[in-house]
């Protein structure tokens, strides 16, 4: 049989040139890989690879610098928005974004995140909310849903003992410095497309000097949730989305 020559230009789908060939450490089904892909595509399509600086967190995305080919700075746990503030103020022509989990952005880093938004820093925070401390073994986070079982709430989160979950996106929306706050997901192809548009809009707003943007992505952690990837997507839709409702929360024109 004659060999079929596969030419790049004939492929319907190809991965972004910004996604490096390193094997990802994420569990199968994890949302992080999908969001990485979208960020890489947006940066490539906007032609801003050489002027993008990303700040990576502590959490499962700690090795994000191995996967997306832009300049990265590693921040201490929760401090990404403070580090990004410094980078953006020193290099205002650059796109500066953070990439943070819920434990990072809205637990240990609450103060840094809220105040960067309040100051109206021209940065974008991409916020991966899987309602759990994924990297360390699935402990309860502030974002954990009521009744949700985690390593530290084996009988489900009980508000009398563990308090209530909170929505940092809605909190940030009250701040004058925050101009674009949106909540997305990547659990269906349609949601992946919407999420990509939101990331692009946030990056464009930031380059235009419009203030602080938060792109929250309601995400799965199938290892932490102890569910298969397919069951995790269903669980997200039935349990996460009624509480973390999708859509734009604030969009200052
Ligand atoms: C100062 C500090 N405190 C605690 C830890 C332990 N730690 C590492 S990752 C992590 C949780 C990360 O969770 P999240 O930000 O939600 O990211 P995910 O892994 O779920 O994507 C914690 C508590 C640490 N590395 N440094
Ligand atoms: Mg998390």
Helix share of residues? 25-40%
User: Uncertain regions: pLDDT < 50 for 5+ in a row?
Assistant: none
Which percent band covers the strand fraction?
15-25%
Mean pLDDT: 96
Give the number of helices: 9
Please trace the helix and strand order, writing H or E for each element: HEEHEHHEHHEHEHHE
Bound molecules: thiamine diphosphate, magnesium ion
What does this structure look like?
This protein has 253 residues and is α/β, with parallel strands linked by helices. Helix content is 36%, strand content 17%. It is built from nine helices and seven strands; from the N terminus they run H-E-E-H-E-H-H-E-H-H-E-H-E-H-H-E. The chain has a seven-stranded mixed sheet, sandwiched between helices. Helix 7 links the parallel strand 5 and strand 6. Helix 1 (31-46) packs across helix 7 and helix 3 packs across helix 4. It starts with 30 loop residues before the first helix and ends with a strand. Magnesium ion (MG) binds at residues 101-103, 130, 132-134, 141.
């Amino acid at each position: 049989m004659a060999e079929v020559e596969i030419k790049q230009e004939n492929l319907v789908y190809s991965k972004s040139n910004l996604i490096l060939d390193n094997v990802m450490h994420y569990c199968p089904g994890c949302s992080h890989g999908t969001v990485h892909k979208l960020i890489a595509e947006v940066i490539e399509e906007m032609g801003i690879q050489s002027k993008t600086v990303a700040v990576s967190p502590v959490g499962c995305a700690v090795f994000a610098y191995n996967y997306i080919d832009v300049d990265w700075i590693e921040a201490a746990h929760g401090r990404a928005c403070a580090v990004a503030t410094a980078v953006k103020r020193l290099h205002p022509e650059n796109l500066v974004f953070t990439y943070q989990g819920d434990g990072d952005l809205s637990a240990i880093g609450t103060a840094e995140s809220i105040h960067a938004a309040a100051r109206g820093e021209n940065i974008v925070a991409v916020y991966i909310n899987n309602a759990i401390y994924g990297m360390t073994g699935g402990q309860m986070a502030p974002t954990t849903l009521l009744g949700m079982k985690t390593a530290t709430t084996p009988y489900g989160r009980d508000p009398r003992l563990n308090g209530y979950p909170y929505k940092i996106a809605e909190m940030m929306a009250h701040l004058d410095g925050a101009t674009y706050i949106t909540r997305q997901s990547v659990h269906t192809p349609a949601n992946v497309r919407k999420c990509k548009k939101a990331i692009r809009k946030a990056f464009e707003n930031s380059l235009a000097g419009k203030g602080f943007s938060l792109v929250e992505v309601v995400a799965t952690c199938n290892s932490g949730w102890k569910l298969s990837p397919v069951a995790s997507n269903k669980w997200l839709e039935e349990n996460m989305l009624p509480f973390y409702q999708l859509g734009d929360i604030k969009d200052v024109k």
